[in-house]
Amino acid sequence: MSDEEGGEPTAVSRPGTGTSRPVSGLQPSRPQSTMSNRSRPASGVAGSRPASGVALSRPATGLALSRPATGLNVSRPTTGMSSRPASSISTKSSKAWNESETEASTPRSAINDDDDFLLIGVDEPEKGCWHSFSHCVGGMWSTREMSVNEDREIFVRTTIRELVVYILFLTVLSIVTFGMTSPTHFYYTQVMTNLFADQPQVESIDDFWVWMEGQFLDGIHWEYWYNSGDNRQYICPGGEESAGPCPVAPADRNVLFENRLLGLARIRQLRVQNQSCEIHPDFQNSIRNCWAPYSPDVEDTADFFPAYRQHTSITAWSYSTAEQMDVVDFSITGKVGTYSGNGAFQNLHSVRNESQAIVHELKENLWINRGTRAVMIDFTVYNANINLFCVVNFLFEFPATGGILPSATYKTVKLLRYVNSYDYFIMACEFIYIMFIFYYIVEEILEIYKLRCAYFTGLWNNLDIVVVILSLINQCLNIYTYFSVEVELKALLSEPDVFADFQSLGNASQMFKSFVAICVFFSWVKLFKYISFNKTMTQLASTLSRCAGDIMGFGVMFFIVFFAFAQLGYLLFGTQVGDYSTFDSAIFTLLRTILGDFDFNSMEKANRILGPIFFLCYVFFVFFVLLNMFLAIINDTYSEVKAEIAAQRNEFELGDYMKRGYNNMLGKVGLRNKLIDIENALKLANADGQVTYEEVRQNLKKCNFSDMEIEMFFAKYDVDGDGIFSWDEGMQIINDLDNDTLDTEARPKSGKEARQIRSAKSARSRPTTASVGTINHEEFGMLTKRVDRMEGVIGSIVSKIDAVLIKLESMEKSKSKRKANISKILDGFTMEDEDENRPGTSGGED
Fold first, then answer.
1. For a 10 Å CB count at each end of the chain, is N or C smaller?
2. What is the four-CA torsion angle of 235, 241, 243, 249, rounded to 10 degrees?
């Protein structure tokens, strides 16, 4: 190396002790080596060029590219160690990269285990248990909302982790949901409905008693088999002979032979008081009695005992509250009213003959009269084959208009949740589901703590809270149902001759299933939160948010017209057409009309003039005008959003992350595609809208690109040499990537050839003034930047060579020590052999 101070070149060899590296915290210069020749000017001023034309060496001043005191293998020194001007790299881009880089995965940013001896004077603080715990917690519950890192790759990685965890949560929730219901529930309900198929056809009091004494009693009492029993040669299952159908053993008298009737069936009625309504003065002389429509305020609580009673109980002829009946006061909603759990009630018998006598006595004593407004029949059956309960309620409404409005409710529920092995698998999934609930509770608490009030301004954050709350309600209802069934079922089954009220358990189970259904719906909608990072997936949310104002304005106009038609239809056809009998029914009927489900003939029969006019006006204004306006708003907004998304710059997305992972796998077998690495590096560098040399270099170094390859890449595409890809340069790279021509040119065989290529391109890009020997300030700065970049590359290479030389020296020392030790051992063996072979001196003397 030349001595800049003395002016005389002096060759200095590497110290033999291997202690030539400085141990101070200062930034030392490179040790002098035999690689002599030209150096930078001694002044170290940035941008100065050497006076002579001899090959490169490191400056004696040590300002550029020396190994830092920490021992890290640095390729491009930071400010204070480099002679690169401060303006050579975008400060914003460099800062963004330095903040976003969280891990060192390349040889240039990480230290190999074999290089530990190079760490001189570095004392890293020990990381205790709290640091490990906090780091683990932060990794488990870190989300995109809590992340302050600007690295796009880390953003995608966090999104993938959130997506995977949420898919697992959604899978467990779906398994728990499908474990609660099955097609068997529907078949069971259908069988019970068909068993009492004539119930919806009851239209009068006579029909009611015929149905009660016939199909109803036949349905709940199965005391005989289906055979005729005419031939005595056939013996019944119990071994007895029968002149008729074989009797069923009392323990096996099940509905449809398979469904055990739990307790007794109960019949109950509600009455209203006489003179509970106002009669017009013109009719007061001719009409003296008046019973109003049902209302809890006008319930008749008076007794109405008959003259003769034998089979019925006293409760059938007196008013009782739900508490007195020892049942839960649940209201039952019918077609024309909502009815309480009070009234007069009568339990039927477990034997058909007794039940027949009870029903006959009620009929003969006129148990139902003009004041009756509702009759309810309740019973519950259980099928052990499929482990399902069916809670049945028949409701017969007696409106003030006369007649009967029948309806029925079949609640098929699974109250005994855990019986077989599949049920216990569902139990395990429920425990996992609870763990996920606590996981997301902690996550939301951390996000609220991090974001404060800004957390509640996000739509997806509010949806997260909704899902968590619904999940908590589900589990509370699940636990309540489980323990209630365990406690109440034993009490209900312990007395088989009383009425077993399963309405409360059935309602709780139905409520539990309803909340689970709503929770599953919102959970699936929440999935958009984790796939919306992709610009294609954001089209739906962007379209709806963009046109929200227009849709709200259109909605006001639409509902004004729609409600006007709904009220018009209700007033025109409400007395004759069932679809328009109430205002609510009219609204849903008009909504069905939009979908093509309408009954034009009924409207025409109701009003031959206004019916067709109403239909034509509604179809024209709502279907042809308003509906198409709505579609036009959506289509125009969607076109704008799609055009904006197409014009957006390509960012590092999930597909790129997957391709990088796949490319890393190929790299392990020597089939790595470097074009994919370059494409991803450019997308990551473009996160801030500007692609700089330092950003691309750091990303490519993570993919194990050498400094020479990076220099060749910039030599080809960075035409102006400013270290930043312009728009034209970026388009050229994109075209080459699309056409797979990025690496088709002949690769330089050495760094000298690469520099010659860059010099040639730079010469072509210079203005004409350069041909006459003058260099302006801009060209001088550009050349200075290139030289600094070359120095950075060479400095890193020399640093690696230094490390290799030091390692070789240490290996030579250890080898010499081993040789010396082996020589000593051999010498000791030789001396022992000589001592043994040497004749003893004592014998000679004797």
1. C
2. -90
How far is it, in rounded angstroms, from Cα 407 to Cα 394?
Answer: 6
Tokens of 473: 């309600």
- What is residue 760's predicted lDDT score, i.e. its pLDDT? 57
The gap between the terminal CA atoms of the chain, to the nearest Å, is 75
Whether 56 contacts 36, CB under 8 Å = no
**What does the H/E/C string look like for 742-758?**
CCCCCCCCCHHHHHHHH
Taking residues 623-646, what's their average pLDDT? 89
User: How far is residue 587 from each of residues 569, 574, 584, 592, 621, measured CA to CA in Å?
Assistant: 9, 12, 5, 9, 16
Rg over alpha carbons for the chain, rounded to the nearest Å, is 46
667 contacts: CB under 8 Å, gap ≥ 6: 704
Task: Say how far apart CA 506 and CA 504 lie, in whole Å.
Answer: 5
With a threshold of 0.85, does the pTM exceed it?
Answer: no
Query: Pick from 722, 718, 717, 764: which is nearest to 743 by CA?
Result: 717
Identify the pLDDT of residue 734: 63
Contact 652, 680 (CB under 8 A): yes
- Give the pLDDT confidence score for residue 586 in this predicted structure: 93
Mean pLDDT of 525-531: 85
DSSP-assigned letter for residue 235: P
**Cβ–Cβ under 8 Å, residues 26 and 20:** no
Cβ contacts of 289 within 8 Å, gap of 6 or more: 274, 275, 370
Q: What is the 3-state secondary structure (H, E, C) of 721-748?
A: CCCECCHHHHHHHHHHHHCCCCCCCCCC
Amino acid at 388: L
pLDDT of 82 reads 35
Mean pLDDT of the chain: 75
Give the closest residue to 589 by CA, choosing from 561, 605, 567, 610.
567
What phi and psi, each to the nearest 5 degrees, are found at residue 471? -65, -40
| Residue 292 pLDDT exceeds 70 | yes
Answer for the pair 388, 337: CB distance below 8 angstroms, yes or no: no
- pLDDT tens, position by position, 400-437: 999 999 999 999 999 888 888 898 999 999 999 999 99
Query: Looking at residue 8, what is its pLDDT?
Result: 39
What the block records as the tokens of 276 is 């509970």
Could you give phi then psi for residue 320, rounded to 5 degrees? -135, 145
pLDDT band at 770 (very low <50, low <70, confident <90, very high): very low
Tokens of 349: 């018998």
Above pLDDT 90, what percent of the chain? 32
Give DSSP secondary structure letters for 456-483.
GG-HHHHHHHHHHHHHHHHHHHHHHHHH
